[in-house]
Design a protein that fits this description.
Elements: H1 10-31, H2 41-88, H3 96-129, H4 132-161, H5 167-268, E1 288-294, E2 313-317, E3 329-334, H6 335-341, E4 348-351, E5 355-357
Antiparallel strand pairs: 1-2, 1-5, 2-3, 3-4
Helix pairs in contact: 1-4, 2-3, 2-5, 3-5, 4-5
Length: 358
Amino acid sequence: MAELGKGVTAGKLALNVQKRLNRAQEKVLQKLGKADETRDSAFEELVANFNKQMTEGSKVQRDLKAYLVAVKAMHDASRRLQDCLADMYEPDWFGKEELDAQVEDTDTLWMDYHQNLTDKSLLGLDTYLAQFPEIKARLAKRDRKLVDFDSARHHFASLQKGKKKDEAKIAKAEEELGRAQRIFEELNVELQDELPVLWDSRVGVYVGTFQSLAGHQEKFHREMSKLSHNLNDIMTKLEEQQQLKKDATAAAKKGGSKSEEANHSQASSPAPKSSVTNGADAELPPGFLYKVKAVHEYTATDNDELELKVGDAVLVLAFDNPEEQDDGWLLGVKEAHWFLKKDISAKGVFPENFTQKV
């Protein structure tokens, strides 16, 4: 004979088998209408509420987990896209450092959002639902004990109605009936107290879960809106930077064409004399070709360039080495500086198309 499990004796095993047989027999008699069944409509309503509550809570839990999976997927997709942008963003483009920081901040925001939803919304819901299996097991045990109670009640009644009464059997049946009733009623009372409290607790759980969810969503989208605005600014300024480069290239080409025409004209005719405005008319100082006036503001981007403000007068110089002259660029010194210092140490190059000859 196979060895019985630890703590299980042959007597207990036989007793459990007998209990199952008695319950099965009792259920068959009740279904056939040959034995009455103890019913409690108020308790049945509590059980119906419990089952509804467990089903709804499990659905919320399942859908919240699916939402978190979607958040994780969006985080992964966002990180790949942001990393792609950072990898292809060239070092000399506007805002390279700002963009790298933007990528890190976006990734951190997604991680915090997912973690907060897990810690503050899902874990609370998990704790709430963790109590249902134990209560469900106790409800099943109550059902079994109710069948035992009905079976003991019917057995006791049948012995009392018998023609030949065996007082010993009747006394034993009455004792078994009292024990079955006591066990059933203890479980029944406990569940009658607990189930309404559990039913009412669902409101607080749902409020806490979705308030937390809404709060973290609001914070996440507010911070993400700021990051999106920053990214839009970086892209806008990058576009402006590229447009300025295009405009400068186009202006240089156009200025080079005009410079060639001017050089051709100067080669075929004497250089015109011009007056320098310094409170009195005078000829250009020796060494200067002609004078121009800035019609556009120009910001120097290198040490050898001349900073211009609208209205600045510039005395144009010839390049020491004509081959060093780029198309569309002139060499000169500001007229005001010349009259103060009488030297050309502050000379610099500037775009010709930002000035007008006077």
